[in-house]
């Protein structure tokens, strides 16, 4: 059953600056798609390898009034509706609300339909939009044309702080925005939703202070490794061992949006972008 997905973030930027980032093709190409074509109120298109089914633009404008943009987006054989609304909170703060129809959590778990990536895709896109507006480095975007899942990011925090944020249940739950329990040992368990929700997945490799790998079954092996870099921490990450005919793009975009949140969590005192 499909549902309405609603995501809401706060950017430390005025509404005019946010509107510019949303409607300027050069800015869109940085935080959203590889290519874009914008001529509002008539045209708003984005496509390329960073967009699901991005072989060509599949969006058309339904409405635009300067504060709310409504798009019809054909995805997975269905016409969905995407709506983005900007609301000023102060001269230097704007709430960005995104709603997306036709999201199915079952598709997110199974990969049966590309619409299953919508929650994690938009979470990452909004995180990158906020970082773009606040002058921060953006997080790696997914390539929906490739089955190669690997990337790296430089985090402005000591390696010990990053490691504890990745491996301590309370800290991981905070930045990921979902309960996580971790039995931190080789052969231990990593459980999304906590151990009461199920046994979780197995930790198949662990080097204390440096790296961890978990076995997600059909979704493959997810692994990360840390290295010190002039007082900062280089985080490299890989997903491997999955069915390349059906890549787990939803899981990959979920990990990337998590990396964006992790970076803010360890780098900024006022780190969360999410607005209620």
UniProtKB/TrEMBL annotation:
InterPro entries the UniProt entry points to: ASHA1/2-like_C, START-like_dom_sf
Residue span, Activator of Hsp90 ATPase homologue 1/2-like C-terminal domain: 156-267
Pfam families: AHSA1
SUPFAM superfamilies linked: Bet v1-like
Highest taxon above the source species: Bacteria
Family named by the database record: Belongs to the AHA1 family.
Name the UniProt record assigns to this protein: Uncharacterized protein YndB with AHSA1/START domain
């Amino acid at each position: 059953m499909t549902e309405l997905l609603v995501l809401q973030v706060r950017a430390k930027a005025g509404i005019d600056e946010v509107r510019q980032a949303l409607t300027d093709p050069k800015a869109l190409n940085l935080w959203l798609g590889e290519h874009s074509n914008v001529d509002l109120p008539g045209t708003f298109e984005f496509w390329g390898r960073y967009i699901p089914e991005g072989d060509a633009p599949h969006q058309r404008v339904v409405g635009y009034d300067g504060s709310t943009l409504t798009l019809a987006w054909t995805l997975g054989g269905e016409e969905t509706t995407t709506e983005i609304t900007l609301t000023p909170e102060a001269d230097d703060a704007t709430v960005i609300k995104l709603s997306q129809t036709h999201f199915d959590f079952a598709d997110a778990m199974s990969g049966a339909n590309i619409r299953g990536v919508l929650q994690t895709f938009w979470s990452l896109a909004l995180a990158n939009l906020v970082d773009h507006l606040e002058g921060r480095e953006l997080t790696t975007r997914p390539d929906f044309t490739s089955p190669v899942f690997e990337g790296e990011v430089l985090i402005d925090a000591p390696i010990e702080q990053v490691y504890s944020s990745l491996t301590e249940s309370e800290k991981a739950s905070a930045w990921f925005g979902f309960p996580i329990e971790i039995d931190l040992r080789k052969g231990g368990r990593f459980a999304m939703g906590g151990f009461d929700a199920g046994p979780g997945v197995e930790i198949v490799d662990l080097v204390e202070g440096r790296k961890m790998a978990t076995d997600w079954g059909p979704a493959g092996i997810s692994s990360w490794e840390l290295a010190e870099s002039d007082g900062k921490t280089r985080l490299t990450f890989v997903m491997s061992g999955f069915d390349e005919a059906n890549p787990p793009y939803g899981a990959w975009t979920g990990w990337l949006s998590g990396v964006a949140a992790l970076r803010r969590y360890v780098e900024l005192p006022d780190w969360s972008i999410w607005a209620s």
